[in-house]
Amino acid sequence: MVERIGGIVAACAAACGNGGGAAGRAVATAPSATAAAPAEANADAAPAPAPPGGAPARESGADAEPPSHAIELSPGHPVTVGGVALALDRVTTAVAIAPDGRGESEVMVATLRVGDATVDLSAGDGDRDTPAAWAGDVRVDLVDIDRDSVRVRASRATGPVVDDRTVTLERRRPSGRDGGVPIGPDVAIARWSHGHKHMRAGGPESPLVVRLRLQRAGQPSWHTVEVNLRPPEERTFTWREYQFELVDFDYGQRMTLRVQRRALVPLRPAGEP
Predict the structure, then answer these.
(1) How far apart are CA 77 and CA 92, in angstroms?
(2) Dist CA 267 CA 273 (whole Å)
(3) According to the model, what pLDDT value does residue 243 have?
(4) What is the mean predicted confidence (pLDDT) over 91-101?
(5) Which pLDDT score, from 0 to 100, does residue 188 have?
(6) pLDDT band at 195, cuts 50/70/90?
(7) Torsions phi, psi of 121, nearest 5?
(8) Which residues pair with residue 156 across a beta bridge?
(9) Phi-psi region of 252 (alpha: psi -120 to 50; beta: other; left: phi over 0)
(10) Which of 196, 235, 250, 258 is the most exposed place for a label (fewest CB within 10 A)?
(11) Element containing residue 166 per DSSP (H, E)
């Protein structure tokens, strides 16, 4: 699955094929270091470290709890919160097979439109739930779901910077023995790569293609972010609540990034406190 988020192509386990490229394992050179990941689908990155107690981590994205005010949505009745239009397209029921193949359970899936994007939220037996989803810098959390309506909470990563770190990534042979370099409370960059695009003769100069593979703690899947930069004029990009700035790089060998994480701000219908 590939989704376009804020001008960035984000893909789960997707291959990136843009001209040439050089990849490397994320290696921290300072205690706060972090960042970067490649695009090949079969790379041997290890999962990010599991949270305390061994429980699977959910899409937290911020230190604070999600906003307390729930928004009720039903088909044909969109709601606008903080300038973002939310609409429920449909609620469907699916049968999920247990990971060991020995059982099945019913999962309810809500398909929502968040601005111009479409996201799915689901609730079932807990093991295969999707309690939160992102559309650009907007996060939607599922509160409740039934056959013809849902209740959700919405927030946007426009709050103050709550984490600011500079990280240096260096190329090395992948070992698969660590969980990458953390850039937040439950996000790590497992791998990274540089690439370029094939441009027509006499046309604009090829941009620097930066690919990052990010993993949430306790989750086997990853997100691949790919952006085209033209430093020093164009050197920043965002992914969800994270803003990245390319500070310095040596093509295919090293890259220094500044990573800032913004707090989530609740989105509520007009008239609510």
Answers:
(1) 18
(2) 10
(3) 97
(4) 79
(5) 87
(6) very high
(7) -120, 145
(8) 138, 265
(9) left
(10) 250
(11) strand 161-170
Please state, for a pLDDT cut of 70, what percent of the chain lies above it: 67
Judged by DSSP in three states, 14 sits in: coil
CA distance linking residue 215 with residue 224, whole number of Å: 9
Structure-block tokens of residue 156: 């946007």
Could you write out the DSSP letters of every residue in 113-151? Answer: EETTEEEEEEESSSSS-B-EEEETTEEEEEEEE-SS-EE
**How far is the C-alpha of 94 from the C-alpha of 129, rounded, in Å?**
12
For residue 65, what are the contacts with CB-CB under 8 A and spacing of at least 6? none
- CB proximity list for 273: less than 8 A, separation 6 or greater: none
Please, what is the Cα angle at 66 between 227 and 50, to 5 degrees? 65
Q: For 93, phi and psi rounded to 5 degrees?
A: -120, 135
- Amino acid at position 94, single letter: A
Least confident of 40-54, 56-70, 155-169: 40-54
Question: pTM for the whole thing?
Answer: 0.71
**CA 136 to CA 241: how far, in whole Å?**
9
pLDDT above 80: residue 173: no
CB-based burial label for 72 (10 Å; 0-12, 13-18, 19+): middle
Tokens, residue 67: 């906003």
Q: How far apart are CA 59 and CA 157, in angstroms?
A: 14
